[in-house]
Amino acid sequence: MSCWQAQPKWATPTNDMNKLPNNSEVRAEQAASTKLQTLKLGLDIHAESIVVVRILDHSAPQPAQKFTPAKFRAWVQTQLALAQEVHSCYEAGPFGYGLHRELLKLGVKNLVVQPVCLDEHHKGVNHDKSDAKELALRLDRYVAGNTHALATVRVPSPEEEQKRIHSRQREQLRRELQRLAAQGRGLLLTQGYREK
């Protein structure tokens, strides 16, 4: 007797196989029941928007998403429920360390990194999405143990940051005064006058 004849019930379309869930339902159910080990977020920060590229565990980077700062904070809270650890990083810049402190309070392991040229392939195309993707890829390597993938910045306390602001502002004003004095002397020289 052949195997087809031994189990005739499997040959009909109205058998028990129709009652089994399809593969996508099974995968969605498994994804909902299992928590990811790590989730990495590469952030490109701007005044009006934050561009995010996400890497789930050891997968490829997902497409970039753009958020307003308020919507980003709400979105990060949903990401914390998806993984055991959430890591993020962004480049140090004019926005200070307020976002860093907020992410730490939420439970995200955030790093502030030194700004670098993220266009390693010299394509001449440098935009928010590619920057966020490159930061996410470097963060993935850093979390995996390659401490040379990112150059981190020591985040000062709020008090240290306030002290820095005053000294930096004073230095900027001093340089601006020197620049304007040199510009004035140059203008006098073009008119035939020499400062004594």
Average per-residue pLDDT, rounded, comes to 82
Q: Main sheet?
A: 5 strands, mixed
* Helical/strand content category: alpha/beta
Q: What's the arrangement of strands in the largest beta sheet?
A: 3-2-1-4-5
Q: How do the helices and strands follow one another from N- to C-terminus? A: HHEEEHEHEHH
Structural features, described:
The chain is an alpha/beta fold and 196 residues long. It contains six helices and five strands, in the order H-H-E-E-E-H-E-H-E-H-H. Strands 3-2-1-4-5 form a five-stranded mixed β-sheet. The longest helix is centred in the C-terminal third of the chain and has 33 residues, at 158-190. 18% of the residues are buried. The model is unreliable at 24-28 (pLDDT under 50).
Summarize the structure.
The protein is α/β, with parallel strands linked by helices and 196 residues long. Helix content is 43%, strand content 17%.
What labels would you give this structure?
single chain; 196 residues; alpha/beta; five-stranded mixed β-sheet; 43% helix
